[in-house]
Amino acid sequence: MFAHVDINNCYVSCERLFNPALENRIVVVLSNNDGCVIARSNEAKALGIKMADAEFMVRKLLQEHQAVMFSSNYPLYADMSARLMNNLARYTYMLMVYSIDEAFLALGNIEHLDLEKHAAKISEEVMRHTGLPITIGVGPTMSLAKLANKAAKKQKRNYLVLDTAAKIDTVIRDFPIEDVWGVGLQYYQKLTALGVRTAHDFRELEPDLVRKHMTVQGWRLHQELWGKACHAIRDIAERSKGIESSQSFSTYQTGLEAMEEAVSMHAATVALKLRQQKSMALQLTIYLRTNKHNIKHDQHYPVITVKMPFAANNTHQLTRVALQAIRAIWQPGYKYLKTGVRATGIIPEGEVQYNLFSNYTHSQEQKLSSLMDEINDRYGRGTLRLAADSFERSWAMKQAYLSKQYTTSWKDIVTAL
Asked: Each residue of 235-287: pLDDT tens digit?
């Protein structure tokens, strides 16, 4: 048996946790540069606010209903996610973090386990320990656990256990096919052409027909809906094939200095992510973007991939390479809207092949990066950084409605009066 757990309206729930006055109010969280809606409270959903609605299009409606808007507070959301995952690990012998707000738990080898009581216990204790409302779906496959989770939300329940064929048949009979995990737009169009409207309709198709129209992935989904597990929980996360940090600017940027500052920040972020997963990168790709939607301005999308002399994950080396690259591709006269750094050729730290003839200062730079990590972990991210990464950041993304970083910044910590 598997359990799928996710946070209800994750970003909104994180904001409400530290501001109880937001309960029962219309709350939305906006994307980078406060561009569009990416999280909604149930009250906002009832008002008709949809995911990805542009902020300027719903601004008047939100103001009329005295809604509260927030800019994305990623440090807060990531920290609360980590707290959730640490709590969930207590209830299983194997946990797989699937995204910032959801995870799969293996329950199959826990003896004498009452699934109903176990799901209820997880729901109650996680709420008590973290303050985050969650929904739990339990089923004999990961796909059915995910389906059970969505069905529980539709039934306004905290959890739903599908541990018998009769329970599964009842839920999937009217479950929309577009809400099934793994059915994207292309699969949805193919299935509706075949007359499939529900999960039950899909399950009744012949396996060979499914494989013909949906390849092996669709066939696995079909088998999972019949209770035959084709996916397994991995206790060790797969090594990333690429790590990227990018960001749109709040306003158009035309100067090289701003580009260098932004690229330095992204290179430092990529280096940190590499160190966190004990990996190193063999290549760095740096790119610039103008606004493709603004046809009045000349367009320029330069990109360059640099092969590192040897794999690295320290901030100094990656920043040095990134700065050289951005100077090579930047051109005056263009209004740039976005830049980013992507690391590829990811290998484990222990598999680095050094160059015999290079004057390599890996150990010193590695120690400096480790020291930066320790200081930033203790006093807050960005406390110590390279000089190339400015503190001013006039190009930083727009965050007009940003809440405090209650759990990751000493100056924002909640105090009792």
From this structure: 666 667 889 998 888 888 888 998 999 999 999 999 999 998 889 999 999 99
Phi, psi of 360 (to 5 degrees): -100, 130
Structure tokens at 356: 């015999």
Question: What single string gives the DSSP state of each residue in 342-372?
Answer: EEEEEEEGGG----TTS---HHHHHHHHHHH
- What stretches of 237-356 show up as alpha helix (H) in DSSP? 256-276, 315-329
Q: What is the CATH number of the domain that holds 219?
A: 3.30.70.270
The model's pTM is: 0.80
Which of 172, 192, 225 is the endpoint of a domain? Answer: 225
Q: What is the CA radius of gyration of the chain?
A: 24
Q: Examine the domain organization and report whether 112 and 141 are in the same domain.
A: yes
Q: What is the mean pLDDT of the chain?
A: 89
159: left (phi over 0), alpha (psi -120 to 50) or beta: beta
Please state the domain count of the chain.
3
CATH code for the domain of 58: 3.40.1170.60
